[in-house]
Amino acid sequence: MTTELPERESMEFDVVIVGAGPAGLAAAIRIKQRAAQTGQDISVLVLEKGSEVGAHILSGAVVDPSGISALLPDWRDDPDNPFKTPVTDDRFFFLFKSFGIRLPNALMPPLMSNHGAYAVSLGNVCRWLAEKAEALGVEIYPGFAAAEVLYDDSGRVIGVATGDMGVKKDGEPGPNYQRGMALLAKYTLFAEGARGSLSKKVIERYRLDEGREPQKFGLGIKELWEVAPDKAKPGLVQHSFGWPLDGGTGGGSFLYHLENNQVAVGFVVHLNYENPYLSPFEEFQRFKTHPLIRGTFEGGKRISYGARALTEGGWQSVPKLCFPGGALVGCSAGFMNVPRIKGSHNAVHSGILAADSVAEAIAAGRSGDELVSYEAGWQASAIGKDLRRVRNVKPLWSRFGTLLGIALGGLDMWLETLVGRSPFGTLRHGKADADCLKPARSFKPIDYQRPDGKLTFDRLSSVFLSGTAHEENQPVHLRLLDPDLQKMSELDVFAGPSTRYCPAGVYEWINEPNTGPRYVINATNCVHCKTCDIKDPNQNIDWAVPEGAGGPNYPNM
Length: 557
Hints:
Helix content is 24%, strand content 24%. It has helices at residues 22-38, 66-71, 122-135, 199-205, 280-287, 344-363, 372-377, 382-388, 393-400, 402-418, 459-465, 483-491, 498-501, 531-535; strands spanning 10-18, 44-48, 62-63, 85-86, 89-95, 100-103, 118-119, 139-142, 146-151, 157-162, 165-167, 173-178, 182-190, 217-226, 236-242, 251-257, 262-270, 301-311, 322-323, 326-328, 478-480, 507-512, 516-521, 541-543. By secondary structure, it is of the alpha+beta class. Helix 1 (22-38) packs parallel to helix 3 (122-135) and helix 9 (393-400) runs antiparallel to helix 10 (402-418). A hairpin with a 4-residue loop joins strand 16 and strand 17. The strands form 6 sheets. Strands 1, 2, 8, 9, 10, 13, 19 and 20 form an 8-stranded mixed β-sheet that branches. A 7-stranded mixed β-sheet has the order 6-5-15-16-17-14-18.
């Protein structure tokens, strides 16, 4: 902006939490629980960029309830709890093009069992947790995107500022312009999920990832279907790997049967893939045509769609968690267990651990310092025990490919279970995902079939089902740092992979008759998956928050 801006109004809280996911809400609840035990009055604010709590939450999800049980021990007595469908049947398949082989459950390490877990909408879990938090006095502001980290003169985090509203595309204030607010706190917790826009800045500023392995990511794409009653099998949980991905590309699928004849189907592609012609969205559509899969959806109706990046680095990639004035929690810290495809239980556990440190600090009259007890305690906690056992599964998969890598990963998990150690030690991940893409000259384009509109679909109709909406007359929140570099490298060297890795049709290369290729960013399509921020081979796309409440509106994801 070139116009001189008015001063921000400010509000002060003891704790500000960025993100109303499982980690952020668990932290808010725990702080209030601790305050009630000691008679303290600790003010807590949770900011949520979605239009409502749960609007931006997307996960499979089969939830390990251990975190919820630690936070709310009597949750099963609440008739309104969202955990209605316990897992009753657990299946694993390796898929070939025309058939699949079921892997015996007896071969799977015990930690891979889903019995005792629940198939559920994680968005609905967060809505339920938000009600619990508000009942304890937590303030929750949906539709307010935290756009800037605030620091004092000594470099401590002192809070965040929400984004300005009513800014025109040219960056100037429009007729309905409203300056964002400064929300100041003794401690600020970042619970933005994978590749949070402020979390990545805090990690960079304080070098929190120094001495750690690069964070690794996957892209999860999900559809929710209403299936014919005779196809519904509530409690059935099915995972697969193999086809349609080749042996060198990591990923897999999930199929979760919920209540009310609903089935969640999804596909995860590890973002360290090499082929720039690969399209995770198209691979997902192709997966649904497999003979073992397509029958579930015959006579059914697709009712929702979404996509989200997930952290896959695990134990080796967890950054330092605390810094002066705040901490990272949940998937902002990378606490997902990759082989289990589960992170919400660890998100809740991390929220509890961080909250305990915050409550202790405030009770001692401290503010703005490092929450060292949180940093010191996570590895010995349930989170550390969960992640350490599976730390080599991802690097083995990446190094040896799907078939051998999965076999070695299974052996490693068994040895960790039985003898508490691994012959591999702790393997490294190596390169960041953006550095894994290879030039297009090494590959041939992939021929993906046209969608039939019944089982397979295109991106634009899918984005429509996500309820995605953005204020159109605002600056593009997907910031291209160097347009010339995008042409010279992203297009000329890598054949425009952003047009394929984006699951929402945001990016296009359009050939103009007189001027040649032109890069188009359809920012209004963005479902906030963050894949572009992760996978662009030059790290030339910076994902920033759009105007508050913009993005998807997932009803039951």
